[in-house]
Specification:
Layout (H helix, E strand, L loop, with lengths): L1 H8 L4 H13 L16 E3 L2 E3 L3 E3 L10 H7 L3 E7 L12 E4 L4 E4 L8 H10 L5 E6 L8 H12 L5 E5 L14 H18 L5 E5 L5 H13 L4 E4 L20 E4 L3 H15 L4 E5 L5 H10 L3 E4 L1 H6 L3 H15 L14
Parallel strand pairs: 3-4, 3-13, 4-7, 7-8, 8-9, 9-10, 10-12, 12-13
Antiparallel strand pairs: 1-2, 5-6, 6-11
Helix pairs in contact: 5-6, 6-7, 7-8, 8-9, 9-11
């Protein structure tokens, strides 16, 4: 169905098409595929079993409107957000650009968000029916970014299975400075202290940039271990990697996601896995659109993966297709469970 109407959808402005997708999911206009289950792709994170390792990345359901509809599509876990403390419009439109020949997107949304109070009310009134994460970030005009993260922690610690500290968007000024040793250490220390005050064991995940330098990998990995971070998302969109793109939209400012990010993401996952091993779970993001692309993320060191751009190009049946392909790959490789091959490329 999607392949027949994709050309029509792609005639719409990308943000308009996204809003239409959210409305379609909200009102159950999107056909729910039969979800294939198999022991080989079942996995575990944060002490909970999930039916498959495929998650939807933050950015799709920014305001927590359709997470339960996404579970029905077959996602093993769903992450909403990025949610900021106060509502904000984000950057001026147009701010999303398709690069069809490259199977990519460039966005400069800038954390457009309904704000934490509205999102909190929504989640309270509609309990998530699967492993559920909330991605939090600071407001653009805040005077204290660290405090904004703590506000997100206070608002959502009892409503999610995990919280993601997003320090990696290229579209919020100075956000990526949290990759610096002193700033990241201070932020994670504040988060740890706030968790003690709240008396919560909510798992904390950190989402990092694909554009970090190799010399920073060890520093970041050691800080994640020191501060008991339970998972790391590798990675967000990149503001680089434009040189081999075909579409004219490659000149647009913003974060690039999709297939051009796949190799860079896999290499970074592998580098972190060599340090973290199985002490901290890695969630791999970037260019996921098939069973083979998931397999490559897993053998490089990811325990789970997330996608977003892949669904834009392949449609809502992408999860069920990936799961079928993944089951076949594991069967052919004689692998009993996907967790058995995490980091096996090393």
């Amino acid at each position: 169905m999607f392949s027949k109407i994709r050309s029509l959808i792609f005639k719409l402005d990308p943000e308009t098409a996204h809003d239409l997708a959210i409305k379609s999911l909200k009102f159950n206009f999107i056909y729910q595929n039969k979800i294939k289950k198999n022991k080989s792709i079942e996995t575990e994170i944060f002490g909970k079993k999930i039916p498959n390792p495929i998650g939807i990345a933050a950015g799709f359901d920014k305001d927590a409107e359709v997470y339960n509809s996404l579970f029905k599509l077959g996602f093993g876990f769903v992450e909403v957000g990025t949610v900021t403390p106060l509502n904000q419009y984000g950057n001026p439109k147009p701010r999303i650009f398709r690069l069809e020949e490259d199977e990519a997107l460039i966005n400069r949304l800038g954390f457009n968000s309904s704000g934490s109070e509205k999102v909190r009310s929504r989640i309270i009134s509609n309990s998530p029916k699967g492993l559920f994460g909330i991605n939090i970030g600071p407001n653009k005009d805040t005077n204290n970014k660290e405090e904004d993260y703590l506000i997100g922690l206070r608002k959502f610690y009892n409503l999610a299975d995990y919280l993601t500290i997003n320090i990696s968007s290229p579209n919020t000024e100075n956000l990526r400075s949290f990759h610096n040793e002193d700033e990241l250490s201070k932020l994670l220390d504040l988060v740890e202290k706030e968790k003690k005050i709240l008396k919560t064991n909510i798992p904390i995940v950190v989402k990092i940039s694909p554009d970090i330098k190799d010399e920073n990998i060890n520093i970041i990995a050691e800080l994640l271990l020191k501060h008991n971070v339970e998972a790391v998302i590798i990675s967000n969109s990149t503001d680089r990697n434009r040189e081999n793109l075909s579409n004219i939209n490659k000149l647009e400012k913003g974060g690039l996601s999709g297939k051009p990010l796949e190799k860079k993401s896999n290499e970074l996952i592998n580098k972190f896995y060599k340090i973290l091993k199985n002490k901290i779970k890695i969630i791999g993001v970037g260019g996921v659109d098939s069973g083979q692309s998931v397999y490559q993320k897993i053998i490089n060191g990811a325990s789970l993966v997330q996608l977003y751009t892949g669904m834009i190009y392949k449609g809502p049946s992408i999860v069920s297709k990936i799961n079928e392909e993944l089951i076949n790959i594991l069967e052919n490789e004689r692998v009993k469970n996907i967790s058995d091959i995490v980091g096996s490329k090393n």
